Amino acid sequence: MAAIKITDRIYSVGVQNPDLEVFDIVMATEFGTSYNSYIVKGEDKTALVETSHADFFDEYKSNITSVTDPAKIDYIIVNHTEPDHSGALAALTELCPKAQILATAVGANYLKNITNRSDLGVRPVKDGEELDLGGVTLKFVVAPLLHWPDSMMTYCKEEKALFSCDFLGAHYSFAPMLDTELKDTEGYRRAFKEYFDAIFGPFKPFVVAGLAKISALDIEYVCNSHGPVLTSAGQLGYAVAEYGKMSRIVKNDPKKIPVFYCSAYGCTAALAEKIREGVLSVLPTAECKTYDIIKHDLSVLAAQLNSSNAFAIGSPTLNADAVPPVWNLIASVDAINIKKRPAAVFGSYGWSGEAVPAIVARLTALKLNVVGEGLKACFVPGDADLSKAFELGALLAQSIA
């Protein structure tokens, strides 16, 4: 992808990766992604906002060179330090020898570890601090936990452009860059929502704060780090409105207490049903459903778990452990917002029953409030086991009643 002129003073010099199928190991990218980077030209100084993925450095270098001599770049602004943003930085320090690197104080520390250079010269910037390029002013908007502690945005008031970092982005490879040229609006909007859910879903209070920070800014362009540049004539209004909707904290009424399980021969399933009955004995109006994990889409189950008031999860023991579908669901736990949430663990076993204590240990490490010690039933649960399962469900409900 060649460099693209966004405004008279802003150029897109990032690279496209349309063939990427999975981002950061866990996020499917149906439409690939991009690693966006921008050059801002003032009358006196030139700034490079964001860098790129190290694997695409040659193309990235070519894009930069088509706009300006890299040796004349005065500033490299790193809004966020994950390697998809900063991977090219080490090589850029050779290409742009006089450039001063700017990041938040947290970002400055991260960059030294990412580049393995303790001598890396990074100047920390503060919220509201401005940088004069000569007729062009860049203002730094520090926005921690959007979505890392180091995150910030950069605003150019003369061009009415916000370099929003990951905020308002999407994993959507789009070579024309400007959203006014989008043809597959439905596909883009699907990618936009999936990106929010995966990246910003755990940080909804900070999304609300971020929206408040930019609400007073006159913005016609959002030059984000992934996906097309958003414009006031295109998707910008939609994107901001959707972030407002998706970041609302919804309180469950009635209470939601799902019961998840895997069961080879129906033994753990019998415990799950009794736990459900126990929950409803205390909270008869609660939304309490049982879910056989292997019969449902994992993303749907993860959404149920993360939006719950409490939950129960059960597994038989296989090879001295819980079964893989259970671990896959636990791997989808929103570890930031789920702290102290009540949870119950149960399962049937044959020989030794390690699954239940293993799950208890993992949920405890995630700082959930595990109710009881975990219920184990040897082989087919008898009346005493089923009674204990009922009592565990009642105890789980009481924890939020």
What can you tell me about this protein's structure?
- The model has no long low-confidence stretch (mean pLDDT 96).
- Strand 4 and strand 5 (27-28) form a beta hairpin.
- 45% of the residues are buried.
- This protein has 401 residues and is α/β, with parallel strands linked by helices.
- Helix 8 (267-282) crosses helix 12.
- It has a seven-stranded mixed β-sheet with strand order 1-2-7-8-9-10-11. Strands 12-13-14-15-16-17 form a six-stranded mixed β-sheet, with helices on one face. Strands 18, 19, 20, 21, 22 and 23 form a six-stranded parallel β-sheet that branches.
- It has helices at 57-67, 83-86, 89-95, 105-115, 185-200, 204-215, 236-246, 267-282, 298-306, 324-330, 355-365, 383-398, and strands at residues 4-5, 10-12, 15-17, 22-23, 27-28, 33-35, 38-41, 46-49, 75-77, 100-103, 122-124, 130-132, 137-142, 152-156, 161-165, 221-224, 230-231, 259-261, 290-292, 311-314, 342-349, 369-370, 375-378.
- It has twelve helices and 23 strands.
- It is elongated and about 80 Å long.
